[in-house]
Structure formats: C-alpha cells, structure tokens
Design brief:
Alpha-Beta Plaits, seven-stranded mixed beta sheet, four-stranded antiparallel beta sheet, alpha+beta, Ribosomal Protein S5, domain 2, binds (3R)-3-hydroxy-3-methyl-5-(phosphonooxy)pentanoic acid, 13 strands, single chain, about 325 residues, 2 domains
Length: about 325
C-alpha cells in the first residue's frame, strides 16, 4: 500500500469540522524510547517489527507554523530559510505532497529546541508538530489515533510524539497499518528525570532508516532482539506500575545496549557510538557500582540520556556538568 492511499482513506470522511484558519501552529515534544523501535516490516508505511515504549521530553521539541504561500513551498528552520535542495526541505515537501492539492504551496516555520538529526529524535517531534498543525490548518478534527498514524508516515517514532508522557506504540499486524499507532499510558511519575548529555550535534552518518534496514537484513542477532523486546515491554510496564526506578533503568539500559549490539553485528557494522559515549557509559556504570540509582539509554546517535529519580539530581550534575535535566511530568 502507498502512503497516499492511506492518507486518502484516513481523510475521506473528514469534512472540515470548523472554518479553517489562515494559519495554524502546534507544538510536539521529542520522545526517547525506553524500549526501542529498530526494524520495519514495511518500509513505505514505517510499520515496525516490534512494539516500543517512550517517554516525552516536554521542553525539548518542535513548534511548527503552517500557512499558504504562492509559487513554491518556503521552509524555515529556526528562522532561517532553507535552500530548496536541502535534505530536510526535500523530506518535508515529500510529506506535504500527501496532503496538498494542485498548485497549493505552504510556508512552514519550524522552531526546534532539539538539535536536528543528532539522535535526539527531532524528526519525531518535527513530523508530529507538523501533523498537529495541519489538523488545525485544514480543520480535519482528527483524534490522536489518526494523527499518530499520519505522523508515522513522516518518521516511525513521530507517532509516539503526538501524546505526552509515557506512550506505547503497538506494532500492529495489519498490512495497511491502521492498527499501528501510539497510545498514551495513563501513568504519571513526577520524580522521574531524564538527563541529556549532548556529545555531538553533528548529523549522524548512518540514518536510522538505513541502520535499521541493514540490521534486519544482515545481523545474526536480530531474531533474539525481537524476542528481547517482548520480554522488556512486559518488564517495563511492571516498572511503571510500581514506579520502580531500578527495574525501569535496568530494562531500558539493557534494551538500548542490545539494540546497539544487534546493529553492531550487522554488515557493514552499524555503530553510533563515539569514544566519548563509551567514556560516559563507563562513568554511569562506576557510579552505579557505588550504589547510585543511575541508568542510561542511547538512540541512533552518540548522545547519552540518563534515567534517574529527582533526589540524586545534584550528584548527577556534579559528575556530568553538561547534563540537561528534564522532568517530563513537571
Ligand atoms: O523514527 P526513526 O526512523 O527516527 O527511528 C528511531 C529509532 C530510534 O530512535 C533509535 C529508536 C526509537 O524507538 O526511537
């Protein structure tokens, strides 16, 4: 099935519920997966092989404004107009093609508080904010489930950025992907802190699309990875219910390291780590050995995200002076 067919089927019963405004703006938080999505069963529709579970990053995200313009699309990123040949522009325009009529052009203003393509899921908040803004711009009146499916067509993990807090993306089994959307988990955990350590703001050399495809096709560990995800999801849900930081931390850290190990076993190897990443990982392990309740996760980039409870924030800041602490529920 093509993306455009899916969009047509989602929008076919959507007559404007209200007068469409001249412009619309929306915000979406970035998210980091505690249980990762790594591998697709459908490249076109971004359908995953396994379910995944994330936490939103509140103030780290994307604000996007949409309005009409004449002649051609104009895309601004952090107030700078981007060249038509820019990779980001091409990606956004291809996505907008799914929604536009003939000779319809957009001016898109995107403000990111997440470094673009540095493994901090800026594409997730970017596509989620764009889909939310389009929903208002065209007064579609779509609910979170449909918005999640539309965001997924831009970037898989974007489907988890429509909602805030803990979010579960059910992988689904349907060919058209209508059962593959993300849903909010109704649990709040105000003490939970995420510490972001930026080690690199450079664009990653292997995109997550390419990295996961290569892993699925060539990594001998991929089958075990899928089994591990199932077990980890069950463990993580238990950790959330009991607000158990040790279980959450162990499960998320082990899941992330397994994802990277599975990718490393691909050929050619897929490695997102930098020497600094390993240095930080070892620092976390040393502190944990001394009894600190500190854990980590990593996505398709060199940066490290720490997981801990608010009580140890001071100690964490002492050991990681550049860390930025985020409380998703405060
Ligand atoms: O949605 P994508 O194509 O940017 O892939 C995201 C992949 C990871 O960030 C590594 C894992 C995840 O679940 O977010």
């Amino acid at each position: 099935m093509k993306k455009s067919d899916l969009v047509t089927s989602i929008l076919k019963n959507q007559s404007a519920k209200a007068a469409a405004p001249a412009e619309a703006e929306a915000y979406a938080s970035a998210n980091i997966a505690l249980i990762k999505y790594w591998g697709k069963r459908d490249q076109e529709l971004n359908l995953p092989n396994t379910s995944s579970l994330s936490i939103s990053l509140s103030v780290f995200g994307t604000r996007t404004r949409v309005k009409h313009t004449k002649g051609s699309d104009k895309i601004f990123l952090n107030k700078k107009k981007l060249a038509a040949s820019d990779g980001f522009v091409l990606r956004i325009r291809r996505f907008l093609d799914l929604f536009r009529s003939k000779n319809e052009y957009y001016e898109i203003n995107t403000l990111n508080t997440v470094p673009t393509a540095a493994g901090l899921a800026s594409s997730a908040s970017g596509f989620a904010a764009l889909v939310k803004a389009l929903n208002d711009f065209y007064a579609w009146g779509l609910g979170p489930r449909e918005l999640s499916i539309l965001a997924r067509l831009g970037s898989g993990s974007a489907c988890r950025s429509i909602e805030e807090g803990f979010v579960l993306w059910n992988c689904g089994i349907r060919k058209d992907g209508m059962d593959s959307f993300a849903e909010k988990i109704d649990i709040r955990w105000p003490e939970l802190a995420i510490g972001v350590i930026m080690l690199s703001t450079e664009k990653k050399k292997i995109s997550s699309r390419e990295g996961m495809q290569r892993t699925v096709e060539t990594s001998v560990l991929y089958h075990s990875w899928q089994q591990k995800v199932e077990q980890d999801l069950a463990r993580l849900k238990q950790a959330l219910e009991n607000k158990d930081i040790a279980l959450l931390g162990q499960t998320a850290e082990s899941n992330a390291l397994s994802m990277h190990a599975t990718a490393l076993a691909a050929w050619p190897p897929v490695c997102y780590w930098q020497p600094k990443s390993l240095e930080m990982i070892q620092r976390v392990w040393a502190l944990r050995h001394q009894g600190l309740g500190l854990y980590l996760t990593m996505d398709a980039g060199a940066n490290i995200k720490l997981l801990f409870k608010s009580g140890i924030e001071k100690v964490v800041k002492n050991h990681f002076p550049t860390v930025e602490c985020i409380y998703p529920f405060k």
